[in-house]
Each structure stands twice: as structure tokens, then as C-alpha cells.
Write a structure and sequence with these properties.
The chain contains 2 helices and no strands. It is elongated, with a radius of gyration of 18 Å. Helices cover about 70% and strands about 0% of the residues.
Length: about 60
């Protein structure tokens, strides 16, 4: 019953507070930027692998 309704807004607030306490408010923008860049790279690589597997084989 704990996660029956998924994430509530207060869950996200708790996660944000914990992140601020762990990393400090000065490092969070850099960390978020690095995470976004990593996700873009991962997404482009998975898209390339999918396109490669969809290509007809000779």
C-alpha cells in the first residue's frame, strides 16, 4: 500500500531536500547539467543501436 498511488508531491520534496543536504546548493546545478548530458548521450546511443539493428542486412 505504500506506493500504491505512485509518487506524491511530498515525495519529490523529500528527495529535493536530501539532495540539497548531500550535495549542497552550489553543486546541484553542475550535477543536474552533467546528468542531463549523460542522459542525452545514453539516449542517442540507444537510438543508434536501435537504428543499426533495424537496418537491412546484406
Amino acid at each position: 500500500m505504500f506506493l500504491r498511488n505512485g509518487l506524491e508531491p511530498w515525495h519529490l520534496l523529500i528527495v529535493a531536500v536530501v539532495l540539497i543536504l548531500l550535495f549542497g546548493s552550489k553543486k546541484l546545478p553542475d550535477t543536474a547539467r552533467a546528468l542531463g548530458k549523460s542522459l542525452r548521450i545514453l539516449r542517442s546511443e540507444t537510438r543508434a543501436l536501435k537504428d543499426e539493428s533495424d537496418a537491412p542486412r546484406p
